[in-house]
Design brief:
The protein contains 12 helices and 11 strands. By secondary structure, it is an alpha+beta fold. It is globular, with a radius of gyration of 27 Å.
Amino acid sequence: MDRLRKPNVRLVGRAGRKSGAEEKPTEISSRSHAEDQYRTASERRADGKALRENVPREAHAGWKPPKNRRDPVDLLLGTNEGRLAELLPIRHGRMVSSPFAFFRGSAAQMAADLAHTPCSGLKVQACGDAHLMNFGGFATPERNIIFDINDFDETLPGPWEWDLKRLAASVVIAGRHLRLSDNDSARAAIATARSYREHIADYASMRALEVWYDRIDVERFLKEVPSEEARKRAEERLEKVRSRTVPEHDYPKMVETTWCPTPHQGQPATDIPPHCKTSTGTQSRVPRRDRCLPRVAGRACPRAVRPLPLLRLGNQGGRRG
């Protein structure tokens, strides 16, 4: 006879037993470990309220610099480790152009400050740099344009509220940069936090796959645009995004395509000064597996397609940060 695999069955105690009473196995459970770890929406909500008793909302309202706070300039210079020295003046020049540009390039500084603040007790894989300009539209593999976070250079495990605090702070600083009134900037920050809270409440009542497939597409985004003028401006920008394809716009910037006399030879990579440079001083050849052989008039023509090992400046208040 074939051996029967023993089912994943274990004894569990009866729910609602009195505190201090000896637990007696009275029921049989075939639930998996993952199922035992599952908690309903009401249970998760109760857990959150319990955590909030230890760290109430009011604890997140203010911030005072700690006595042993590291000098911001020293911290900023410490983040230059590993960067190309000849490109650092460009990075610093961008950051000194405005307070908002400095904020965009100082994610490490804000993380160091938030590390001394009360923690909610719930950690996630945070974006790490969720400022206003790191949200935008981009195309999915299905050629749909969606609105989402578009930069994860600083992602790290951390308290969920760090991303929200950085986003709300960036809204206020951007408002000042645009010379909005303090009231308008404050209202924008409050609206940001309110939208976050409402969406999280919606997601808490949804199934995992429903949350996974939820997205903000073009139509949904345009419906939220407050004025006709702003909506028209957004449509013009979206049309420009649609006209840019990866092969025609992005691909030529990332690779160097040169014709080769033989399939096993390649041309050295070139720099794109001053912002992009090859990662080493040596000029390497492209491995054979990285080549493509496009067909012209039915004949295979060897061509080397060279990925450029680019070093970006990172998040220092540039065009993307």
